[in-house]
UniProtKB/TrEMBL annotation:
Residues 1-25 are annotated as: Disordered. GO terms for cellular component: ATP-binding cassette (ABC) transporter complex. It comes from the Bacteria. This is ABC transporter ATP-binding protein. Residues 4-243 form the ABC transporter domain.
Amino acid sequence: MIELEQAGVTAYAPAQPEERGSGGHEQVVTLLHPTTCTLAERRIAVIGANGSGKSTLARLINGLALPSSGRVLVDGADTATDGAAVRRRVGFVFTDPDAQLVMPTPVEDVALSLRRLGLDRAARTARARQVLARFGLAERAELPVSALSGGQKQLLALAGVLATEPAVLVCDEPTTLLDLRWRRVVDDLLDGLPQQVLLVTHDLEAAARADRVLVVDQAQVVHDGDPEQAVALYRDLMASGATTG
């Protein structure tokens, strides 16, 4: 279970050029206003315009971003004080798989993820091959990662994260860079996972299939609940030009 208790995020921005000569100070920018909610549903979607704060909210869940105020708990573990426990429970998938694929070949990349399980090298390699087979990548285990298509890279990124069997999977726009065919492959995979999935997305069809949808606008959650109502509100916001970015 994910709990946000008045969790907010701020950052400092340098003074504007015209202010520097007159002793201008750094500005405090709010990336996410204090937010309180308990997320227990199996499928949760987060939608909002670019720059609205939805990715900041997602990054709070596994400690990639820490709250400036309040706290975030995952199954009782505080992201600020027990980050290791949180990272064992929460997997994170980025928009661009190249941001998380670091090894030369798929089998090496998945095996690297498995190091945290304490397996020896041979056991990690064998387990990595099993994981790749599960994701339809067995025949590409020894290929250079650079030779994979964008969709195959995203599958590999998912395979590496899911290999350690996290309880929660946070996906930050995992299909944004994919064509329609690969988008469907990834969507179907996410829909079939046993894990709790929090999906940040611009795909309103995917959002509508969630059990619960959060709409983020101007660094705050403006809707939390029914997917149909959430999508309708987001469409209205986009049509009115009221959203940020």
